[in-house]
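This part of the workshop introduces the protein records we will be handling. As an example, a complete record with its sequence and its structure tokens follows.
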Amino acid sequence: MISRGSARFGLYSADPQPALLVMEDFRLLSKLTRAKFRVDASALAQAELGDDLSGRFLALRASDAERRSVHPANAVLAAVGNAGAYRALSDPTALPALLADRLPRTMSTSGYSRPLAQLIDASLGRRHRPSTTLRAAAAGVATRPEDRARKIPALLWPAWTEKLAPNRLDREVAASALAAAVILVGSDLSHGAALRLLDPESPGRRVSHLMASLGRSRAEGKSIGAIVELADYLDRTDTPIDYARRRVLDYSALLPEREWQDVCEEEGVHAGSGRRWRAARHALFALVTGSRVDAAPFPDSLTGQARVLARDFLASAPGRVRKALEGVAVAFLQANNIDEPLTWAPPTPDAPETVSEPDVPKAEKSWARARPGADRLAETLPSERLTAAYEAGRSTRELAVEGNVARQTVARALERAGTPARPPGRNKRIDIDNDWLRQRYVAEQATIPELAVEIGCSNQSVSRFLERAGIPARRRGSASRADSLRPHPIAKDSALLRRALIGQGALQRAQRFLFACDYATLTGAARALEISPTALSTQMKILGTASGGDLFVSAQTGQPMQLTDTGRRLKRELLRARNAHPELWGEGGA
């Protein structure tokens, strides 16, 4: 065997193996043989190694001279191991019994001959990985993996994915794994290397995990053979699409937002938010290239629900929108000098070759326009009337309200009519009487929102008018409201109450103060009012500050809280006002 460079006996008769690999087989089987003879003397007798060799081995076994190691301690052990290995290799039927229960489950078969590696896998209950089977298969025509990758989308065609992996939950991962599996047929690539030819950024770990179990279930029992047949068909066929060329195009000009709005306007559907446009753009990229929506080279990446929306976009969009988007995709390909059908799929055994189309959506309710489009605007405001109204000073917002459309629809109609847009903030000129503004804002304490409603402009415009008139603006907040700047009517002529009962919630604070006077602690009063002690304490601090000092002396051990002089005066004034004007007191405290 060594002189010839190969072995052709016994196990290697049908598949001669290189001498170096067979020597490694001898090394392993020699070790297993010695281990077997060490514990089973009857096996040694059945091996018929001769009395001289058997006797010497038994003598060594009885002494301490034999060591349990990979390398034999002397020539006797080497002779026994190699003789036993030779007899086992000469009679392959004896090998399974020699290998059984003597190998670790995680043992690697690299470095051993192919026939022995197969027996080791069988002994350990292993089956070949699908990628190994595919690499060993041969398609009808020798083809480079790169050439076959030009004919395959990064996600295998949906009909083939359904046929080869019918029960996989994540169809995108299954389609990615299957596309790479077609590349593997008859090649020397790893599954990861084949995957990178189609999609360098694919989720490799998830794809490899799926590939390891492909074909194991009953539903996928014929998948490996079908993949080989598909690879053979692609090698023999001039396919109409070059996916490799499509994957490297510049897609920055594919479906800009304005074009998406025009499509929706023309088809009479709601364009939705920016999220719907981004989903449409990513879905169109996936349709053109046969790749994942995540692989789109757009600056706005997809996450979570947005990714799901993009994956299912064409299937859920109305038929007329889908057809319009397909027209956009065809125009994009033609602009890049590509004269190919938009989509194509090879025939499955139970279906003819066809151009694939997305499923027809079941409902279009979410796409229905809430307001009419350009055609309805033309009925309400013809182009001449619309232009005249805009040039007369009316804003796009006002025209949109009158026409019951979106402002963008009005803006596009004006643009089509050739009417230039006015600069922002110059829709109409408002003349303000500064004396009137001072009277309303300073003397009458009107708020900025109230003035904006009266004038018919924005809050920011009112602020600019005040600044031009030299009127200092009040601090923002509740104190700027007119009704919060006056004492509550129950205060009447009492100087103390006119200070205490001012601002929002003043009467409620007074009511809760009288309520708390009957309790030993603020905590007990708050519990009875069913509010938090912090809320009640904060209200009493606000009331005390307005009244001129603290209202309560905190409770001490064994002593309830007491009213301060300020608190006693406030209580006396409040009781007098309540008794004098019960109609103004309200029902409120607790």
User: Anything to note?
Assistant: The beta strands are 6-7, 17-18, 552-553, 562-563.
